[in-house]
Write a structure and sequence with these properties.
By secondary structure, the chain is α+β, with helices and mostly antiparallel strands. It has seven helices and five strands, in the order αααβαβαββαβα. About 30% of the residues lie in helices and about 15% in strands.
Amino acid sequence: MSLEDVVAVYERARAEGLRVARIHSGDPALWGGTQEQVDRCAAIGIATEIVPGVSAFSAVAALARRELTIPEVAQSVVLTRLGGGKTPMPPGEEVREFARHGTTMAIFLSAARSGQLVRELLEGGYPTDTPVVVAYQATWPEELIVKCTVGTLEETVKEHKLWKHTLFLVGPALDAHGTRSHLYHPGHFHGYRKADPEARKALRSRGAST
């Protein structure tokens, strides 16, 4: 259905006093074509409510048993896709530009051009041994979760004949160990817990020296 076809259903439902539930895969806030529907409904006086979903990148992180923001390794997550698809990328939003941050990236809609993806990741500064999680049809019965590196990403995609319904998680956080969050450190305090004085001193001393 085109947008016009979908809106026609909305208008018919309004005329008949019905409610419409439009189901989107993943989280409708990401590549869901949601805004154009909401805007069109607002223009014709149809009230809407958006119920958030679970994005594929969150589902894949859980399946891979990995946290994407590891203390001292990565504290940001970039959600993007490779340029050259159906929707043009705005200037400055190329994968190679985001890769310069060196943090965790979740890359959607890019399996069909895995060679280009690898080139841009390398051009952006990721070493070839940077860990990658490749997820095909995550949370579906036939899901496939494979771990590889930036250097072996293209061959992994081709080996499994992946070209759609595939998400890549990329970054050093995907195999990082040995760091510790301050949140659960005995030297950290918050509204429900007092800090241990000695642990607090040690934590502050460590922060000043790094």
